[in-house]
Amino acid sequence: MNVLVIGRGGREHSIVRKLAESERVETIFAAPGNAGMTEATAVTIPEQDTAALVDFAKANEVAWTIVGPEVPLLEGIVNAFREEGLNIFGPTKEAALIEGSKAFAKEVMATSGTPTGEYRTFSDQETAISYLDSVDFPIVIKANGLAAGKGVVIAEEEQEAHQAICGMLGGEQFGDAGKTIVIEEFLEGEEFSLMAFVDGCDVYPMIPAQDYKRAFDDDKGPNTGGMGAYAPSENIPASEVERAVESILKPTAEALVDQGRSFTGILYAGCILTKEGAKVIEFNARFGDPETQVVLPLLENDLMQVIEDVVAGRDPKIRWKKATCAGVVVASSGYPGSYEKGHPLPELKEDSASFSIYAGVKEDQGSLVSDGGRVMLVGSVQPDLEEATANVYKTLLPVTSPYFFFRTDIARHKTMSSSSEYK
């Protein structure tokens, strides 16, 4: 069959690589893809040009389309494909609102009894500021909508909270995304990412992963889209993962069905293991990045078969390798702030035990050069975490370039601060 993957980053390259292992997949298209996705044929159509993507899928006999990023989902790409009778894996815009609106996600959690932090939603600046008199600090203040990972402030004291509220509700900092805010309890504990294949009330969980959001070693520096990850997370007992599936993923999927927003696709729960058990920090409506890059290499099944089974109502009987995968992101110097593009990628001495996933790259005179903040991820699958990280850093540590940087402690210190993944 022919398969179309929508997106251009490392998450989508990881999906493409996994699909390339399938004997059932003949041709993989990536729209728009990136120059490092050599396993796919690039299609020069932007992710949000839904009409052109529908026409392409028809003209090229695409059997399945898989959506990577969240914006096309929230703009209704799944709805449009379904209206044309085309197979597409992802939630409708109505179901994707679980990611697009933090206030809506909290309402769903309240309805389903899903454990999460205490919260209040505000659209009025004065009311929100008055609410600060009744809270214990620190607190978390979030712009309701998508804000490119920048719409969250962890306020340690009232003045900081006051400034955050005024910046969101009183200004144009986040546009429509900041017209409503959520103020919620600050949760403490160990964080983990838990993704699942979902169709309606059927939930098939993946192994838990742990990612690292801070730019620099020892969880210092600004939040990023993710500087590395590993799976499965060694800090979360299997019993707690099972409990999270039963208390978080399944009730949420069922609540969306009850609301007439049945979810099909990847439901991602950003969780934190508190003293009271796992609670939700946030939901995403698609594969996580960079978690996907370390989870999919451990999947033994044919990814395309899993997707078809899930949508058809069959148990995919998911199997996982008895191994660990670690991945470290190479980013452009200056990221997540301003950075230069167009620099040749660092020369890596990879071996058969490591792999590269490309994200912010393009081709220039036959070579790959940087074209984004997060440029690539170097990963390795090994019997244990120590071997996996050692192999990644054997590849990366010789790199000395003023144009790129990476963390040197991914998965080497496995205790994460509770504030690191708020975004």
From TrEMBL:
Swiss-Prot/TrEMBL keywords: ATP-binding, Ligase, Nucleotide-binding, Purine biosynthesis
SUPFAM superfamilies recorded: Glutathione synthetase ATP-binding domain-like, PreATP-grasp domain, Rudiment single hybrid motif
EC number assigned by the record: 6.3.4.13
Any single GO BP term: purine nucleobase biosynthetic process
Positions of the ATP-grasp domain: 106-312
InterPro entries in the record: ATP-grasp, ATP_grasp_subdomain_1, PreATP-grasp_dom_sf, PRibGlycinamid_synth_ATP-grasp, PRibGlycinamide_synth, PRibGlycinamide_synth_C-dom, PRibGlycinamide_synth_C_sf, PRibGlycinamide_synth_CS
PROSITE patterns according to UniProt: ATP_GRASP (PS50975), GARS (PS00184)
Protein name: Phosphoribosylamine--glycine ligase
Species of the source: Pontibacillus chungwhensis BH030062
Gene: purD
